[in-house]
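Researcher: Here's my situation. A collaborator sent me these components and asked whether they could plausibly form a single complex. I don't have experimental data yet, so a predicted model of the whole assembly would be a useful starting point for our discussion.
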Amino acid sequence: GKVLVFPMEGSHWLSMRDVVRELHARGHQAVVLAPEVTVHIKEEDFFTLQTYPVPYTRQGFRQQMMRNIKVVFETGNYVKTFLETSEILKNISTVLLRSCMNLLHNGSLLQHLNSSSFDMVLTDPVIPCGQVLAKYLGIPTVFFLRYIPCGIDSEATQCPKPSSYIPNLLTMLSDHMTFLQRVKNMLYPLALKYICHFSFTRYESLASELLQREVSLVEVLSHASVWLFRGDFVFDYPRPVMPNMVFIGGINCVIKKPLSQEFEAYVNASGEHGIVVFSLGSMVSEIPEKKAMEIAEALGRIPQTLLWRYTGTRPSNLAKNTILVKWLPQNDLLGHPKARAFITHSGSHGIYEGICNGVPMVMMPLFGDQMDNAKRMETRGAGVTLNVLEMTADDLENALKTVINNKSYKENIMRLSSLHKDRPIEPLDLAVFWVEYVMRHKGAPHLRPAAHDLTWYQYHSLDVIGFLLAIVLTVVFIVYKSCAYGCRKCFGGKGRVKKSHKSKTH
Amino acid sequence: GKLLVVPMDGSHWFTMQMVVEKLLPKGHEVVVVVPEVSWQLGKPLNFTVKTYSVSHTQEDLNREFKFFIDSQWKTQQESGVLPLLTSPAQGFFELLFSHCRSLFKDKKLVEYLKQSSFDAVFLDPFDVCGLTVAKYFSLPSVVFSRGIFCHYLEEGSQCPSPPSYVPRPILKLTDTMTFKERVWNLLSYMGEHAFCPSFFKTATDIASEVLQTPVTMTDLFSPVSVWLLRTDFTLELPRPVMPNVIHIGGINCHQRKPVSKEFEAYVNASGEHGIVVFSLGSMVSEIPEKKAMEIAEALGRIPQTLLWRYTGTRPSNLAKNTILVKWLPQNDLLGHPKARAFITHSGSHGIYEGICNGVPMVMMPLFGDQMDNAKRMETRGAGVTLNVLEMTADDLENALKTVINNKSYKENIMRLSSLHKDRPIEPLDLAVFWVEYVMRHKGAPHLRPAAHDLTWYQYHSLDVIGFLLAIVLTVVFIVYKSCAYGCRKCFGGKGRVKKSHKSKTH
């Protein structure tokens, strides 16, 4: 079949790429639709890259990204951080939206896509652009995502999400909450509504314009046939799911290759102490100099060999045991028996690579769901979280020594690893199965819950409850009245006397 | 590993046995605990069987079951769980529940089970005893069932089930309901909460006695590690599920053998018209004579060869095209290309054999989930439902002619069949995987939602909502009061004048 892929830039693309590669291997044709200016999305031999012009340059895009990352490393109070974070999200979503508008207003490209008769669209709904396009083209969609902010994913799947035990994104809560934590969990989404409103409403008007009718974002997204979530219930907390939600967490650590000679040499040279892998993800390439110096100092104090993926300026105090590299085969290195620890920004990809290879982690969450990810691994005793802004060289040194020398961290991560890898079918096969399923059956309408056709008060049966209450009250009222009437009849004289007596005194 | 199996008698055991037999070659030691008196469980098996004596005889069992079935034939087929709960034929259930008391009376058996140190219990929850056994020996459990009676799946797995679009069992409703139907559905849900505990009173009394602490059905169900339900979403309507609820519908129709010579001869003799398979399930062996005559008459009017599994007296008006047999290889016959239609009581086994072989059905539901199964197939245009009590020979004839001659029935069932069979992993393998999973990991605590530890008002966040409301009201009250005070201060003179003026006129 023919698959139109509309990916999300950044690390999101990296695991989606594996699915596209596998689809190609199974004889499907994939066309990847991307803006001219990209970071990770590049031409490859297993798909056709179709680009569309955007009104910004590579340089401008990169500078924007750098500015955003700089903000993360600046210390500030809570309110300042919140405002700055929303500013970043605003900037990013503005860029993405502009790119989307350029795509959806590109008449000739739309016409070309329309005439290409695709069987389905594979997209990351964190930018709803792909789904708006799919809806316009009238093609079934499979979503490939970690989450959509502000609970839009649970609204669009009609998946129940009791806030009493399902922690909301960015709250850093667990599934067991105290009363005040539950209050926080309920209020938090309200605070985020503002940002979400900003990022998503403009897609709504874009969709309404293109589809020529008023649509809400949730409605547009609700037409996805299958949702492939990059999570599982070893890492995520158990919660209700819908039949068209499929969990493929760990999909990114399936494909493992032997190490290249360069890295093999590093690992072998590490001796009995082994190695520590350090990466803050593919999006963070530079950190403030002072911070980098502090980190470098801590790394020098441990006996392990450090492999640090870092593209910024080399810290002057870098110790001999630390090797700076521009890129590292993270999953393959973590899979090596000599890997002792993993210093990560705790993005979901990194976390899953840590889990499936069973390597304890030191986590430095920077933004988004990384805080939540770190919290979860910490509560499961599989890693230590550091606040990247406040930590000193001592903190990092202690954290590293703890996860390496304290046996319980290794045991816990190995337990998680064995649970995670014990599954009836590999996540990559599962993802490809569902993509092919949607192609074969032209969607999956039999998995669409009827809840989509109900209003909110119907969904919660408020109309029915109101109706029943009205009946009960009416019956009670009538019974009461007739009793009262009966009583008056029976003890008629007395009652009347009393009444008249009363009215007189008045 | 070591597995303890607590099965349920009747057709339930057929599929459960398939799973158990698949576990044996994997090197697991299996012990099945069965009552001395049963229909299907006593048959020779190639694994360890432990029997316990019961206080009733085979005749008692047959009599009670016959009474139960007869009451279903006689009474008007009312819908909903309530009529079933209050039916006079409770004796059959009482008999089943009493098995558990007999089991625990057998001190030698209990001691043996205690010494055996099993890894898990694999159980059919129908007679509740398996749940009691699991709790008594503190073993992780895997439930194997078509569905769970009453609202105990919702309570036991903490699975949300909004009554606005998830129809309650036996109501013959779909997921799209009118207001009236939703009222009925909600009332039925409330009715289950009200009446089910008393229906299971004998079972919970025995469990409380055995466990020496008062327990409810919810207490018995909530420790379940994994739920294997013999349904899928081609038959079921999409609704929320929990991560530890696994759907294995169609598990019974995967192995097809060539039909025996006897049946092969019947099928070949049928000519171009083909055959119709007719069975009301393994539990119903006799039907009232008048009804049987009527059925026989209708069957004689169609050109197909009828293969009727019937152990009762031969109706005198049986036509030449109808062959009575004591037993038939239902799945193998339905898999034959000459199978044109399937007359079934629409038990879940039969329905799935019909779906996976793609044979349109004429359904005569008798009790329990059969009503719902029939309704689902009918709304999907894959069969016709008849009311077995009220139907005439003409009705049956018309129904048969419709499903055989009207192409749409065949098309619809073939579509369902292709959806049903399109799955990433075979249901039998999936069932075996999860049983082994629970044995390997000694349960699945990471799949247990935190909702189990909340009270109902906490689950629905009523305490949080109340707290927030209280705050809002307090703030409003204070603001109002201080405004009022402020106003009085500002316009003090005027206000006072007005007031005194007012009080004077009074």
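Model: Some features of this prediction you could bring to your collaborator: Residues 263 and 292 of chain B are 23 Å apart (CA to CA). Confidence is low (pLDDT under 50) at residues 497-506 of chain B.
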